[in-house]
Amino acid sequence: MGIQERKVRERERRRQQIIVAAKRVFSEKGFNKATMEDIASEAELSPGTLYLYFKNKEELYASLSLRILQYLNIRVQHVNDEKNMDPEKKMIALQEAMFDVYNFDPLTIINLFHLQSSETLKNLSPEFLTEINELSRKSIGGVANIIDEGIKKGLFIEKHPTALADIFWSLFSGVILWEASKNILDEEKDYLKNTLEIAFNIFLKGIKKTP
User: Could you please report the per-residue DSSP string of 94-155?
Assistant: First the structure.
């Protein structure tokens, strides 16, 4: 292994170390109370070292969202690539995929939804914003492809597939944020999966053409 390759690997290892520490701190303190000093302490690094990798805590926060968006894209693309499923079955598989993404990292998916609707985006570098936008468009585009396939086969109503995909995404994020807020008030009540199933079933029935 050459010196340059070793430096690249070391930089990526240190970056991941910071991201893991940030996730712990955000989980314990929340975004508003967490500081770069807290994250540096958790990562056992100096605050100055953190700023070599991330401009501010907003970018650290966003880096967690990038990881979950990348995983979401993989799952959506996998459903798209299924050759033996009709569009309706793909939508059902997509619902399961979305819930699996939530289960993979509940805190980060909730953070992602908060990030997309907050002032935090204004503090990100153009590079971060571009990557988040591209990954988000791919996710929505993957959902829209499935819906468009159903429209072309005469199974779904003839409405703009991207608009329907946006509604699907809004439904997913809205239910998760609402149920997460309810869970804070009463941890024993967790109706997320059941509520998502009802919401997705209503959505699917709504876009299906009536005989």
Answer: HHHHHHHHHHH-HHHHHHHHHHHTSGGGGGS-HHHHHHHHHHHHHHHHHHHHHHHHHHHTTS
